Amino acid sequence: MGRVSNKVAIVTGAGTGQGEAEARLLAAEGASVIATDINLDAVSRVVNDINAQRPGAALALKHDVSSGEDWASVVAQGVEKFGPITILVNNAGILAPASYDKVTYAHWQRTMDVNAWSQFVGMQTVIPHMKEAGVGSIVNIASLAVVNACGRFTAYTASKGAVDAVSRAAAIELAPFNIRVNSVDPGVIHTAMVDEAFPDKASIDAAAAAQPLRRMGRPIDVAYLVLYLASDEAWFTTGTSQVIDGGLSVSGGVTPVMER
Ligand SMILES: NC(=O)c1ccc[n+]([C@@H]2O[C@H](COP(=O)([O-])OP(=O)(O)OC[C@H]3O[C@@H](n4cnc5c(N)ncnc54)[C@H](O)[C@@H]3O)[C@@H](O)[C@H]2O)c1
């Protein structure tokens, strides 16, 4: 018996990085997984691997999370194949760094659409099925940028702040239906997104060395937290923002030299 057996999960952005790790882990723990991504080739590879381990456990779908029409189609296909959805992991996101003077309305709007509107419309589309099932867990991936500011991430930070705030509001509205909503604030997790922010080995190594644990997080580290929040083990946990950052947010950055 897995930790999420008999549950049906949607994981967005599951073609690579954290979403891939989350889809693989939820499937390994017994869930049926609808793995979606704008990159169908990437998510199909992940789903083929999952199905080689557990035949029929996963479905790959092409999905632009900023599109309400895509959400309607993904949810309809997922429900038809597996039944009512009981876990939603809103993971897909873009970084699109830009200094404040380069932020245009189009840049701001695209970042908000892919990172924030996507998660809201995803919840709106899935919630009727969770109500039908009488249970649900929604995990919205935000970012440590909500807590610790980063230069060049203006629109990204705004979008992730919206994710955290909307998750709290949704948690209260949905609690009477036994639907839990939590957000996750990852620190620096080594994925393609981090390679975009730190484009060479020297800057990657420097960023890892600056962490209190002297390393970056791995996608599987976040996946274990998502698994917990998705499972019934977290039945009393809703409306929280879970920081997972190797201690970065509580670090003062300075360690005095002490002598006794
Ligand atoms: N990596 C980090 O350090 C870090 C830190 C904090 C938060 N996050 C957040 O974690 C989540 C996962 O990031 P990651 O590091 O795995 O990134 P990643 O770039 O490795 O993966 C993102 C995935 O999302 C998909 N995607 C992009 N736009 C999409 C769209 N419009 N519709 C559907 N899919 C789309 C991509 O194809 C890709 O497979 C994101 O929401 C990101 O903002 C990442």
TrEMBL record:
Sorted UniProt keywords: Oxidoreductase
Record-linked InterPro entries: NAD(P)-bd_dom_sf (IPR036291), Sc_DH/Rdtase_CS (IPR020904), SDR_fam (IPR002347)
Presence of keyword Cytoplasm: no
Pfam families reported for this sequence: adh_short_C2
A molecular function GO annotation: oxidoreductase activity
Family: Belongs to the short-chain dehydrogenases/reductases (SDR) family.
Family annotation (PANTHER family): OXIDOREDUCTASE, SHORT-CHAIN DEHYDROGENASE/REDUCTASE FAMILY (AFU_ORTHOLOGUE AFUA_5G02870), SHORT-CHAIN DEHYDROGENASE_REDUCTASE FAMILY PROTEIN
Protein name, per record: NAD(P)-dependent dehydrogenase, short-chain alcohol dehydrogenase family
Organism: Faunimonas pinastri
Organism lineage: Bacteria, Pseudomonadati, Pseudomonadota, Alphaproteobacteria, Hyphomicrobiales
